[in-house]
Amino acid sequence: DAKTTQPPSMDCAEGRAANLPCNHSTISGNEYVYWYRQIHSQGPQYIIHGLKNNETNEMASLIITEDRKSSTLILPHATLRDTAVYYCIVRVRSGGGADGLTFGKGTHLIIQP
Amino acid sequence: DGGITQSPKYLFRKEGQNVTLSCEQNLNHDAMYWYRQDPGQGLRLIYYSQIVNDFQKGDIAEGYSVSREKKESFPLTVTSAQKNPTAFYLCASSSVPGQRNNEQFFGPGTRLTVL
Fold first, then answer.
1. Burial track B77-103 (b if 16+ CB lie within 10 A, e otherwise)
2. Could you give the CA distance from residue B90 to residue B82 in angstroms, rounded to a whole number?
3. A112, exposed or middle or buried, with CB in 10 Å at 0-12, 13-18, 19+?
4. With contacts defined as CB-CB under 8 Å, which chain A residues touch B90?
5. Contacts of A31 in chain B (CB under 8 A)
6. pLDDT at A96
7. Mind listing the pLDDT tens digit for each residue in B21-46?
8. Which of B104, B110, B111 best tests the A interface by mutation, with the highest count of A CBs <10 A?
9. Of A36, A56, A90, B19, which residue is the least packed, with the fewest Cβ within 10 Å?
């Protein structure tokens, strides 16, 4: 799986959009970008994933650059409950096996009241 | 409700004892996983299983063992050979890759402390 780079921490005011960047310059053509988040002392939670088109669901939007070397996760109206560590992961979505995810240290997003 | 359960939430053991962590899922997922998380770190894969009666070592399998006798269950045993077993252990499951959705769903975790 390709390596990702994320800032270790970010702050965002409650009610504002939180934009979390991720660099994945060595991503290959069949690798997807996944985002998970982990609230303190809980299991990670899937947020969204994409290949090359922008994606949106009820939790967030994912913007992937045209060259696919970076992406941004957008939480449109951050709340205090969005304070968590956010992990950007790139991997082949389908293939020969259901192998595990490779988690880096992620970005600790702190939503300020 | 469908989901993944891990028990207990907190577990204490004396050094040198084996301990088994439970993981059960009722999502009808074929694949299951065990991860370990140390403070301030990301998750690291211990073992995974794509199908009943089959499992593969992950990145840090030494000192651990698993079994997959039933689709719903994937218990992890932390043996006395694991040199630093105190950690947060997370279980996950997913449907088979190639199906429309194979994102991993995680349990609430078990925090193991070895005294």
1. ebeeebeebbbbbbbbbbbebeeeebb
2. 17
3. exposed
4. 43-44
5. none
6. 44
7. 999 999 999 999 999 999 888 899 99
8. B104
9. A56
Of A40-49, A96-105, B65-74, B89-98, the one with minimum mean pLDDT is A96-105
Angle at B26 between CA B25 and CA B32, to 5 degrees: 35
Kindly give, in sequence order, each residue whose CB lies less than 8 Å from that of residue A17, ignoring residues fewer than 6 positions away: A74, A75, A76, A77, A78
Residues whose CB is less than 8 angstroms from the CB of residue A57 and which lie 6 or more positions away in sequence, other chains included? A47, A48
Would you state the structure tokens that stand for residue B40, as one six-digit string? 């301030």
Q: Is B72 exposed, middle or buried (0-12, 13-18, 19+ CB in 10 A)?
A: middle
Residue A95 predicted with pLDDT over 50 = no
Q: Which DSSP symbol is given to B70?
A: B
State the average pLDDT over residues B89-96.
90
Cβ atoms of residues A25 and A3 within 8 Å:
no
Instruction: Pull the structure tokens for residue B82.
Output: 């694991």
Q: Mean pLDDT across the stretch B65-75?
A: 97
Contact B97 A101 (CB under 8 A): no
Let me know: does B66 contact B77? Beta carbons within 8 Å: yes
Contact between residue B78 and residue B110 where contact means Cβ atoms under 8 Å apart: no
Q: Report the percent of chain A where pLDDT is more than 90.
A: 76
B6 Ramachandran zone, left/alpha/beta (phi>0; psi -120 to 50): beta
